Amino acid sequence: MKVLPNLSAITIKNINIFYGFLYVWVSLCSLPIQVYGQEKDISRILWSANWSHDQSCFVIGGVDGKIRIFSGKTFELIRVIDNHKAIQRMSWHPERNLLAVAAVEDGSKLIDIDKDTIIFLQGMNSNGSRAIDWSFNGDMLAYADYEGVITLWNQQGKFIRSVTKENTISNVAIDWHPSKNEFIVLSECVRIYDAEGNLLQKFEHRKEDVLLLCVQWHPSGDFFVIGDYGDVNNKFKPLLQFWNSDGSFLSEQNISKSEYRNMSWSKRGNRLATASDALRIWSKKGKLIAEGKSPDNLWGVDWSPDGKYIVTSSFEGHVKIWDKKARLIKDIKSL
Predict the structure, then answer these.
(1) Strand ranges (DSSP E) for 267-308?
(2) What is the rounded CA–CA span in Å between residue 236 and residue 229?
(3) Per-range mean pLDDT, top range of 12-16, 122-126, 167-171, 257-261
(4) What is the β-pairing status of strands 212-217 and 199-203?
(5) pLDDT confidence of 334, banded at 50, 70, 90?
(6) Are 88 and 47 within 8 A, CB to CB?
(7) Which residues contact 249 (CB under 8 A, 6 or more apart)?
(8) Which of 4, 6, 20 is nearest to 191 (CA)?
(9) Is residue 160 within 8 Å of residue 153, measured between CB atoms?
(10) pTM to 2 decimals?
(11) Of 180, 97, 100, 101, which is closest to residue 137 (Cα–Cα)?
(12) Residue 9 confidence class, pLDDT cut points 50, 70, 90
């Protein structure tokens, strides 16, 4: 396992500037920005795409603050919920139609789709987050915000505890272990905590100062995968890396032309789908199996529970359904 050295003032300053800028542009939603070679209007970005546990529907959320609910059978738009704040990540409860929403400012909340009720995370004091995830049994919700604070909540939206903050600048991704009360958080480094808030591991993922973006445990819990932003100015390619549960490095891939925004394992764990400049499907050993081309960068990605479909959302507001071989089935909506 790599040990994290003390970051220089320049490194910390650069990371802090980036996340401050990230928050501003997501909030304003009206200015052009260059995202790894794409300079476009960011107001169309759809950050998150997520299937419900029972495959009855999937949800799409993005900068415009709208949560769009689509049928899992017909792929037709069923309903639109106005969150009023830019949505950056969503997570379905593993057994209920209870949707956890991570958004900017005070927009983070729980939405009970069946009961049509909203539960605000009381006492939340942050500028928002894009890191939210349910525990494997749905007993706890972990929320890691842009201020570097991690908080745990129950299904009723009641606060359980906060995790002691280190020198964390900002959190960008979180993922619970599939069978233990442990979770990975990405910030300026990789950290693994238990549900009591104890730091179990901490390490850097590469030599260069490159921003992390997404993480997923394999369903077995034996290893996890992380994806980063890369650095186009310094010619550091975005990396997809496989790590053992003990923090030892396994392998990496560098074929993406764009940052890895999100990733999703199939329920069986035999396939990993990643969202970047294309939809790519990998084996659990990191071998590329299939690739689906996209005219704009993909941001959200998720497998259907039965493993037949993949839903993606994109930088320019496209929602698409693909099959398990990354072949496009339907272009549902373009915002």
Answers:
(1) 272-275, 278-282, 288-293, 298-303
(2) 9
(3) 257-261
(4) unpaired
(5) low
(6) yes
(7) 2, 241, 242, 243
(8) 4
(9) yes
(10) 0.88
(11) 180
(12) very low
